[in-house]
Amino acid sequence: MIQPISIQNVRWTGGFWAQRAETNRKTTLPALFKQLEKAGNVRNLELAAAGKKEGYSGPLYMDSDLYKAMEAASYALIHHPKYPLRKQLDSIIATLAKAQMPDGYLNSFYQVSQPGKRWTNLRDAHEIYCGGHMVEAAVAYHEATGETRFLEIARRWSDHIDSMFGDGAGKRIGYCGHPEAEIAFMKLYHATKEKRYLELARHMVEKRGSKIFAGEHGVQLEHYDGTYWQDNVPIRHHTTAVGHAVRFAYLIAGALDLAMETHDSSLLEAARLMWHNTVNKRAYITGGIGNSAHNEGFTADYDLPNVSAYQETCASIALYLWSYRLMMMTGEGQYADAMELALYNGILSGINLRGDMFFYVNPLASRGEHHRREWYACACCPPNIGRLIASLNQYVAGVSEQAVWIHHYGSCVIHAEAAGAPARWTMESDYPWREKVLLRVESDSPRAYELRLRAPGWCPKPSVKVNGSAVRALLERGYLVIKREWRDGDQVELTLPMPVTKREARPEVAADQGRIALQRGPMVYCLEERDQRAPLERIRLPLNAKLEPKWEPHLLGGVVTLLGEGRVAAEWKGDALYRNAEPLRPTPVKAIPYYAWDNRQACPMEVWILGA
Amino acid sequence: MIQPISIQNVRWTGGFWAQRAETNRKTTLPALFKQLEKAGNVRNLELAAAGKKEGYSGPLYMDSDLYKAMEAASYALIHHPKYPLRKQLDSIIATLAKAQMPDGYLNSFYQVSQPGKRWTNLRDAHEIYCGGHMVEAAVAYHEATGETRFLEIARRWSDHIDSMFGDGAGKRIGYCGHPEAEIAFMKLYHATKEKRYLELARHMVEKRGSKIFAGEHGVQLEHYDGTYWQDNVPIRHHTTAVGHAVRFAYLIAGALDLAMETHDSSLLEAARLMWHNTVNKRAYITGGIGNSAHNEGFTADYDLPNVSAYQETCASIALYLWSYRLMMMTGEGQYADAMELALYNGILSGINLRGDMFFYVNPLASRGEHHRREWYACACCPPNIGRLIASLNQYVAGVSEQAVWIHHYGSCVIHAEAAGAPARWTMESDYPWREKVLLRVESDSPRAYELRLRAPGWCPKPSVKVNGSAVRALLERGYLVIKREWRDGDQVELTLPMPVTKREARPEVAADQGRIALQRGPMVYCLEERDQRAPLERIRLPLNAKLEPKWEPHLLGGVVTLLGEGRVAAEWKGDALYRNAEPLRPTPVKAIPYYAWDNRQACPMEVWILGA
Question: What CATH topology corresponds to A399-495?
């Protein structure tokens, strides 16, 4: 079992993620709060605080978007205590304190818009979900400031939930149509050490699949299909990814938080099985999930359309969170690989380079009509990517009894507790663009332990030098293990060769047949039509095309592009629907990282390029 | 304007179509009558004849399937007066005579199952449609036998229609949800020279789009969408192919029968426009139409899925009939090209080689689960292909004032009236397998006229010899024109080079992107998995692959196969959804004509082969 190293103990010092963390702090989070003010999320709570019974605006889960932004701002506070958003945070917390009802209930939609109707629609009302996000925000705020005001609100709300739902006398089975609170209650348990919050999480994980939504909505059991809400079967009975993608992945992430604490191996095994189905049969090459707009979720194995790919930003984040927990529990690099793939591709595409516009849906091909927007009526994704970037430090490294683990590469300083003593590991790297990662340790006294460096699945031949000499590091389930007595000043040089690779999908994936995707390092690439000399629909890429990476510091905030010789199909002349196939001619082709698309003038884009 | 040469005057003497005509006569038509007995189509009419009010079986258009089979058997009678099915025909005609009501009404569904409810549901009940098929059968029977019994039944029924529907006093606007009777009334007009049948056809063509089905079904006009029945706009207002494909094409075929007789150029122009949209944006490379199962019809330009292609046999036949009329009116080879393409591919695939099993739906790719069946609950296609093959002679050749036209090639004798005198043209050819067509004329005296030989659009360089000497024939709108004084014994040798061609679809056709189809002569090819050394999903065909035709007399009733070197993708090992693209290796590939697929053990099939 790997233990996390908290945000406090990992600080970006430069490179790819320091730049993004700064944009997030300086542009994205302020933009979120501005939008949340404008859309009415803050005012809804002010109305509740003032006891108003009208004027609520937006969908019923408006509170949750605000809470996610508050959580994000709290993370930003950790390394920047004078962060200006603190004022806003504190003001909203004061509003929450006023709005919370004497019994702990807090939900602006029900308090303002539907007084007296609370707890009548667990399936659709997102009531527990909203509160869960408040709990996460409160725990983050407490972690950042040490202050307990917000945490107390969260506890009172959680105690209210505890008084209503559970196995005890006078309680009823309860869980939310949208899972999330499972994660929240486990966080609250860790923050307070109060077991009843763990029990709440356990209740919601274990009872799920009891089909309570059937009774709640007067649906006869024989006509009830709870799949969308993962209420069709008990959690351990799932073998495939089903229903709404964010709900599915949040549920399992929460279940794993529980399993980690309770050492529940059956829950872990079930989660591994579901993950296997998800990643090997229902995930995009860009690391995201949820192929269908219809249910914002899953359909069938290998059904992975590109133009109509849903791949909601939140779903990719949820898969990231789920994979993280599996990695922590198993120490297996495949889970960290999935985190990295989602992070640099399906997640990062969710935000523009400037940091103030967002994708909700992340297609893998576009005819040029799909663009990021400043805000959405359903605005779950913008604050979600804000809080992930704000908290990314915590996913960089971990410790176990005999090892320090590095999961993500970049430039940062990590304060770890290694083999019972503090060790300060400094990492420097132009990752994900360059293949070198330099690590240096500072510690008071020599200590023997393992340094476990993730060897990404995409990397054909990682190599390691220690203090300038090549060492043969054992590759153990996706991590290179360097075991030695580490002394102050020891240096490790990790080289992760990043050849440009052409990727193909299993033949079962109809949408990708005959097509090639490009990847270098963790970055999946795409073609934007504006970079080509012909319309995308005429561009082909031979299997043996040579592609060279090129660092372009002034393009798209600095990216490595891929340049090579593709083929172009002859222009179609006349009206005929079919013609004798015409030969292809060479044409230069330029690919950019997928995350960076739609940051220039609108044009068609594709990840999967037709072969030739 | 080209005039038809009737079935009487064209007799198959050998080759591809003589063989199929024989199979049709000896196997298919007897099988149809057997199935029609078994399914209750005959009994339904017997019940009506006996005045029964119960016991009707099958869908409400059962009569029409029987009539189509009767029409087919009548055509077969023309060259085979002792055809055993005659007895059955006569017995059914006797039943019809008994079943017909005093006012001329005849429809077993309404008479037996819904007495008193006739003419209450023009939209769905196929009432006029069924009668129209009876009229077509009656005209064919009259043509074959000279007897008028059946024709009289048809006339009485038509007079009944005439008494109900039309523009005159006491009549109402009427047309059928399923067009067809327009063709029938024009045939009856030609058989009887009675103008009121032409007027009936005119009424149904011209009034269509009056949205009468809205009123009939109590749908408010603002909520009414008559597209499925082509009842959304007047016929001349259509610019694209819409709604149910068979209905659409039958309607236009009937309208053109009318336009031919009335010299209606605006109707002709509308039909040409619709044809252009159909063939250049909404037709399969196999010549068929109707891409969607949902409406058995059209959806949008370039929406041409392969596995889920509907391409109903009847729809391809309907396009054949529609194209025939345009060709007759314009003398343009493009229409005959469409007839030929549909005939050898989308239509002929509708029946197995033995002649007793049928496709209703003709997909362009199959995972191995799509098979012909002996019969269908909705059995429109089996008798329809039976009657087309039985009547194919009439589509082979035509005459105009100064020309004899050859549209289809094969071995047959054609008795034509050329330049005012009889001319007997004998054609000999192993078409569509071999490129030579020999023609010889017998006539009493030399006559000057043009022989117009269709130069198929697929043929790069047709050439002609007359009496052994090369001649430069003018190519005029798809026909080679050889004008001379034809003398008894003159010989023409037409050579139609048949290179194997690789075809590609416009980039707008998403389903075919990166794929190649094979064609030789009029034949579109497909791959059946059983002929390859690897599963179809791993087979690729490079743009420059060399393919050689091979005559295989013992395969599939004798076919030219295409053999060449394709590529095979490496087998997929393990569970991963994506992998680094692996090189392709050479593999022999064998293609068979599309029409001949699913005549051996079940296996996957595809027309559009992935490129490499």
Answer: Immunoglobulin-like (2.60.40)
Kindly tell me if the per-residue pLDDT of A391 is higher than 90. yes
Provide the 8-state DSSP code for A30: H
Report the alpha-carbon distance of residue B539 to residue B609 in Å, rounded: 8
Q: CA A280, CA B454: separation in Å to the nearest integer?
A: 55
CA A333 – CA A481 distance, rounded (Å): 12
**Considering only alpha carbons, which residue of chain A is nearest residue B610?**
A514
Report in angstroms the alpha-carbon separations of B373 from A315, A540, B65, B379.
45, 41, 16, 10
Identify the pLDDT of residue A168: 86
Q: Do A506 and B276 touch (CB under 8 A)?
A: no
Residue A407 DSSP one-character state: -
Cα–Cα distance for residue pair A473/B305, rounded to 1 Å: 51
- The C-alpha torsion from B315 through B320 and B325 to B331, rounded to 10°, is 150
User: Would you say residue A419 has pLDDT above 90?
Assistant: no
3-class SS at B280? Answer: helix
**Location of structure tokens 């006349």:** A574
> What average pLDDT does this structure show over A242-257?
98
Hey, are the CB atoms on B515 and A514 less than 8 Å from each other? yes
Q: Which of B503, B514, B612 sits opposite A578 (nearest CB)?
A: B503
* Helix/strand/coil percentages in chain B, nearest 5: 40, 20, 35
pLDDT score for B419? 87
B501 CB within 8 Å of a chain A CB: yes
CB of B338 closer than 8 Å to CB of B287: yes
CB atoms A507 and B572 under 8 Å: yes
Using the Cβ of A444 and the Cβ atoms of chain B, whether some distance falls under 8 Å is answered with no
DSSP characters for B52-107?
--S---S-TTHHHHHHHHHHHHHHHHHH-TT-THHHHHHHHHHHHHHHS-TTS---
Q: For residues B405 and B382, is the Cβ–Cβ distance under 8 A?
A: no
Confirm or reject contact between B502 and chain A (CB < 8 A).
yes
Full DSSP string of B338-367: HHHHIIIIIIGGGB-SSSS-B-SS--SEES
Encode pLDDT of A311-345 as tens digits: 999 999 999 999 999 999 999 999 999 999 999 99
Kindly list the domain boundaries of chain A, sorted by start residue: 40-226, 264-393, 399-495, 501-610
pLDDT, mean over chain A: 97
Closest CA to B482 of B494, B474, B491: B474
Contact call for residues B538 and A507 (beta carbons, < 8 A): yes
What is the rounded average pLDDT of the residues B17-26? 98
What pLDDT is stored for residue B330 in this prediction? 98
Sign of the dihedral through C-alpha B21, B26, B27, B32: positive
What is the C-alpha separation between A232 and B293, in angstroms, rounded? 31
ipTM above 0.90, yes or no: yes
